[in-house]
Recover the amino acids of this structure.
């Protein structure tokens, strides 16, 4: 379910690192909790994002969810396709519905995030208590 | 404040069925209720184009009996229940002495000596206490919620689906009327009412038959695309149809005249709680009024967002959401009457930005007859 080469946050974002570039999205658990996604608001290219700060918003019919930066960096691309097809966040959260790509400010920061097994255990615990 | 655990919440007789269907469950006014099954958008569209089945057994029922039944109903509600014929239902308000809402409700006249009130889930116990405290007549009242399950089957295919399970000729039940009869072999009060803006029925029956009725209605509607629907779609459907929701558009600080519900306010019927305050407000005019608006860009207004016009704060959003059938972002808000005209430009504060919106006529959605 959760790709083993991604890292995860407790706020349900994922990041995939390739060299100095990080691709960021929200997890399958997050999209399922939100329900039908109807709107995605993302930062402009060149914006600086800081670990733990809000950088965007994903809205479903019933709820607004702020998206937190898993690590710091500078936005080099925002996923323009989501503007016309926000429902992609529901259908392919770990793939086509990536939100932004950033140039990592400090690549070592990523190692402090959860791996797939730890994240899976984290959400399983949440689901069991629901 | 600690939130109650699931075990402490009240449950309808269909709780296990909702969990079997893997519904997303939420605490709604102290009840463990399904918010969505397949998704709010698909459930909403199924109800507009085919049929939706809703477990609304959390709703409360209060029964009023006796020679003074009408006198008590008339005393605590603002609409004129004396105008009801047997087998007719009426939307009304349970009023404070200030002319504000204790709750909104449906009043069904079963006989001259028996009225059946359907009230909101979260308010049913306080409604009952309020009616009891204000009962200076000989009428008997019963807080009967635990004796009933309620299912709503709504949408253009609802009548055909329900008809397959009942000998009652449903076409002969007019809108806002009801009858008694068997559905699927179960004795039901069958009302042609609803909270979606579609044709449809709400049926009341003893809880032990809930799973049988639910499953047989789902089965009867499977050919035409019936979907089980949760409170999420119930909310977006009623918002598109511009129906008020207690705790949002109406509460104990708002009056029927402010909420655009002057049509349920009958001060000429004689004495009732809140009458004097309502007569005064009708003469003086309201200081704020409920309006509908459409967002002009892609931002979505949400409940409690501030509303501005000309750089000045003028009110607050009571309900805001994407409208899945209309494919617009809509909402309702209270504003001073000078801003009520359709076409008036306003803005809604969303995450610190002023997002443009325009007043539009209500209802947002009206089904083709």
């Amino acid at each position: 379910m959760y790709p083993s080469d991604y890292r995860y946050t407790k706020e349900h974002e994922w990041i995939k690192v390739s060299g100095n570039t990080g691709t960021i999205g929200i997890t399958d658990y997050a999209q399922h909790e939100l329900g039908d996604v109807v709107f995605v608001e993302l930062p402009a290219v060149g914006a600086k994002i800081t670990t733990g700060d809000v950088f965007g918003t994903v809205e479903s019919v019933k709820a607004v969810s702020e998206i937190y930066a898993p690590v710091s960096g500078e936005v080099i691309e925002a996923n323009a396709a989501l503007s016309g097809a926000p429902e992609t966040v529901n259908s392919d959260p770990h793939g086509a519905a990536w939100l932004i790509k950033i140039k990592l400010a400090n690549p070592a920061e990523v190692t402090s995030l959860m791996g797939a097994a730890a994240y899976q255990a984290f959400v399983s615990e949440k689901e069991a208590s629901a | 404040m600690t939130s109650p655990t699931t075990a402490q919440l009240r449950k309808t007789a269909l709780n296990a069925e909702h969990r079997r269907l893997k519904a997303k469950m939420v605490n709604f006014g102290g009840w463990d209720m399904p918010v969505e099954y397949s998704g709010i958008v698909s459930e909403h569209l199924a109800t507009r184009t085919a049929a939706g089945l809703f477990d609304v057994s959390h709703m409360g029922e209060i029964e009023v009996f006796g020679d003074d039944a009408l006198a008590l109903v008339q005393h605590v509600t603002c609409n004129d229940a004396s105008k009801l014929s047997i087998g007719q239902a009426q939307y009304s308000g349970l009023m404070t002495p200030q002319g504000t809402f204790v709750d909104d409700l449906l009043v069904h006249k079963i006989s001259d000596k028996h009225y059946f009130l359907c009230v909101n889930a979260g308010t049913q116990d306080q409604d009952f206490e309020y009616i009891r405290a204000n009962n200076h007549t000989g009428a008997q009242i019963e807080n009967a919620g635990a004796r009933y399950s309620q299912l709503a089957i709504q949408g253009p295919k609802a009548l055909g689906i329900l008809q397959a399970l009942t000998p009652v000729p449903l076409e002969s039940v007019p809108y806002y009327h009801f009858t008694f009869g068997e559905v699927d072999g179960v004795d039901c009060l069958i009302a042609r009412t609803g909270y979606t803006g579609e044709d449809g029925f709400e049926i009341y029956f003893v809880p032990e038959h809930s799973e049988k009725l639910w499953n047989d209605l789902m089965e009867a509607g499977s050919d035409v695309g019936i979907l089980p629907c949760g409170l999420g779609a119930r909310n977006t459907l009623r918002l598109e149809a511009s129906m008020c929701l207690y705790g949002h558009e109406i509460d104990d600080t708002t009056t029927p005249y402010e909420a655009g519900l002057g049509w349920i306010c009958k001060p000429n019927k004689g004495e009732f709680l809140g009458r004097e305050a309502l007569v005064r407000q009708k003469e003086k005019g309201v200081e704020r009024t409920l309006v509908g608006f459409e967002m002009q860009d892609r931002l979505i207004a949400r409940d409690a967002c501030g509303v501005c016009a000309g750089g000045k704060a003028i009110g607050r959003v009571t309900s805001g959401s994407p409208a899945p059938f209309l494919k617009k972002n809509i909402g309702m808000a209270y504003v001073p009457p000078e801003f009520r005209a359709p076409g008036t430009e306003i803005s809604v504060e969303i995450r610190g930005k002023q997002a443009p919106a325009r007043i539009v006529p209500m209802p947002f959605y009206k089904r083709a007859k």
Remarks:
- Chain A is about 20% helix and 35% strand.
